[in-house]
Specification:
Blueprint (H helix, E strand, L loop, with lengths): L5 E7 L5 H12 L5 E5 L10 H17 L4 E7 L4 E8 L4 E5 L14 E6 L2 H12 L7 H12 L4 H4 L2 E4 L6 H9 L10 H8 L3 E7 L4 H9 L4 E6 L11 H5 L2 E6 L6 E6 L2 E6 L2 E6 L2 H8 L18 E6 L19 E6 L1 E6 L4 E7 L4 H16 L26 E2 L3 H16 L5 E11 L5 H11 L4 E7 L2 E7 L2 E5 L4 E5 L1 E6 L4 H12 L2 H19 L8 E10 L3 E11 L6 H8 L7 E2 L1 H12 L9 E6 L4 E5 L3 E6 L5 E11 L5 H19 L6
Parallel strand pairs: 1-5, 1-6, 2-5, 6-7
Antiparallel strand pairs: 3-4, 7-13, 8-17, 9-10, 9-20, 10-16, 11-12, 11-15, 12-13, 14-15, 14-28, 16-17, 18-19, 19-27, 19-31, 20-21, 21-30, 22-23, 22-29, 23-26, 24-26, 25-26, 28-29, 30-31
Helix pairs in contact: 1-6, 8-11, 10-16, 12-18, 13-18
Amino acid sequence: MTPAPVIIAVDGRSGAGKTTLAVELAARLRQHHKVSLFHLEDIYPGWNGLRTGIERYVATVLTPLSSGRAAEWTSWDWERHYDGGLNVTLPAEIVIVEGVGAAADAARSMLDAVVWVEAPGDDRRRRALARDGSTYEPYWDAWAAQEEDWLSTDSVVSSADVRVQNLADGSAPDNVLQALMYLPSLAAILAPELSARRGLQLRSERLEATPDAALLFETLYERSGNAAWLDSSNASAVAGRSQAAARSRFSILADDGGTYGQSVRHRSGVTQVTAGTTTVTTSGPFFRWLDSVWGRRAVRAPRGYDCQFTLGWLGYLGYELKRETGGNDVIPDTPDAALLFAGRAVVLDHREQTVWLLALDAPDADEWFRTARAAVVAAAGVVPGAGVVPGAGSAPVPTAGPVPAFVSRDSATDYKRKIAESQHEISEGNSYEICLTTTLEAPARDLDPWRSYLNLRRRNPAPFASYLRFGELVVASTSPERFLRILSDGGMRAEPIKGTRRRSPDAAEDAALRHDLETSTKDRAENIMIVDLLRNDLSHFAIPGSVTVSRLCAIESYATVHQMVSTIDAHLKPGAPRAEALAAAFPAGSMTGAPKISTMDILDQLEAGPRGIYSGAIGYFSLNAATDLAVVIRTLVVNPDGDGGRTLSLGVGGAITADSVADDEYEEIRTKAFGVLSTLGAEFPG
């Protein structure tokens, strides 16, 4: 008896293209493995024999194969309509079983992976009849009825590990093979395929150009279902080689198109990765999944290229991922995480006034370089603020739609009461600082998220601004705060913001507001507490003695606010798992308070609702093992509401300490919300 094989079932309704897919998948796997292939159509006992065929398959084929024994089974003679000869299927390293019912309930305990193949009904009928000719046509309806009867009592569709919409264009086998690599049950057996996938070559092209970034993004990605723009929208306001200029040096524009394009969404311990028309579902913590796809140096940066992003994953991590880092399990309306994999991207170097085109070597790379190059040239010919789509210029963007009427989760009275409850928790010794937040919501109606973002970036330029689109879910952020950066060489940096004052158009008043923040004992105390928390977070995976504070309570000024910022640096231990180092610091301490875990528990009780994307992180996970993530603040989220409409939300909050004054704290969240609300023409509710 040979070792038990890995068994992959390819199931789906008749005519979905299972046979072709299974044959092509087997051909790809045979490059590294011995593969056996079994077709259920060889064993069905006639046109009315679906359920009986499934029973025969499970008993005489799957049961012996799953234990490493040869399967002896009786075929069906479709011309004589009677049992045919005795056949033998030998176990191999990998066995693919294909046909309607291959992953039936009785079979699933013996399977390592289930692929469900889908296609429109008209396409399925046409394909089946084209393959089998007139012999099948009289039985199509009867067979389809048997399929529906079986599926009505079997959860095979919802239990599938991989689902593929088979377009019959030749893409399905490669997409399915890529999806199978994400399944833990197949990770060991598919190690050769995984190694081949990691053997990536990065191609690049440098252009001397200063394109209008907004026009460039719209030109390249207007029709992309998933797209990301990590937008240093304040680059024109900072210059030289200061820290502020360094944070604002690069912008990244990408989607999930092309050969390597993928997207992922994670909800409550379930990760779904989509590659082309194929979706693979796995269970487990998000940070464990992230560790499986990021953290190793897979490519080398081009010569002369200073940005840490060398293609990879871009998107957001929502606050409720705290369930994996010591927090409670709260369910938000938005996915806990949404990322796209960019196998090609445009990177703007604002300091050098150059553009880098990056792409993984693939059959479609040349065409993409031509398209991207033409888009850069066209966008570079537009004077910022004077084109159809303004960038960072001063010209107003066309209206984004009707003015939203926001409602707050908490009235002024409620929020101030929660401040008092926070201070009670502090007096009881349960926390030192509680970052209390609330959420403003409004029906999105006809609001245009893209136009809203263009107005937002013009009014509130920031180093970590971003525009993310994941289907109907849109995130428009003008965050000034870095959460965590890990360089390819292991250097780590966190830059928490605590302490805010509004800007004034009057120079003298503006200077006084800045001085007030700079000399505020309360704000310094808040900031220093978060610095201590982050020093501890980084120390878990840092080289001992490498954690330092290079800036403490410095003041930075933005378009609508002055803010107090500190910088904590460290160096990652060699070989330390980077996803775990990120998890150790997540969520940002500046959005929780200190100590983090007990304070998050208090916040869950006080806030009485999920934060969603707000308070999480936005940024990238690069193929050279680097990451740079911003804290999700000053951020609008447009999300489908499940009833055909859309909800617009904005999270706001502030740090509560023992000496907080309720009226001042409430005024602070109004100040923080002003920059975003005023862009929409909206007012703070209440």
